[in-house]
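Students often ask why we bother encoding 3D structure as a string. The short answer is that it lets us treat folding as translation between two languages. Here is a chain of 224 residues written in the first language.
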Amino acid sequence: MRTMLPLGVAAVACALALTAAYATHPRIPPGHHEVPPDQCPLIGSRPDGRPPGPVERLLNPKKNRRTAPAPQDMDSSVTLARMLAPGDDRTRFLETQGAEITGYVVKVEQGGHPETANCGNLTLKFTDTHITVAVGPTTDLTTTLIVEVTPWWRQEMKKHGIDWSTPTLNQTLTGKKVKFTGWLLFDVDHIKEATNTQPAHAPKPPWRRTVWEIHPVTAIQAVP
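And here it is in the second language, the structure alphabet:
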């Protein structure tokens, strides 16, 4: 005969089971599965199986670019100072070009929300690495920008014996002066969160200077 638990006890048991599951597979909520980056479509798909919206359809192929910018693609006029300059910067650069910037790495962390460009992954291995870059050491994030290492490029570097995992990048780059190369991207998802583009009555204070990013990063070089 099957024993029925009281509702309160059953809820506690369920919570404990979920806690154990998260301990084994951190940051993988129900419905989110590991999809290797080489098996994730360039446009991606929503975690619920529906196609992404029009903004994502435009952004995702750019986020998932799988070739490094060639010399003729590089905009040599781009510098960290220009990217961090104040003022509405929506048309300051071109997303069809690559750039190289050198700056101080304030922090390195795992991307905090699922992106359709990564097929909704929330695992450490298959989410972007967000690297906060500034001119120098600072605690004021409104003077910073973000560059991102994508799962596909992390996988490609691993083939060459280079570890671009988030923990390793955090350990080796934080507090250092670093040169980043990659594609320019205007991440419209964050327009309301950057001082250069935030509307006058935004619901939250900004946490970055600009939504322009180097994304994906295709080369990283520590500067002596």
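Translate back mentally: The longest strand covers residues 98-110. Keep this in mind for the problem set.
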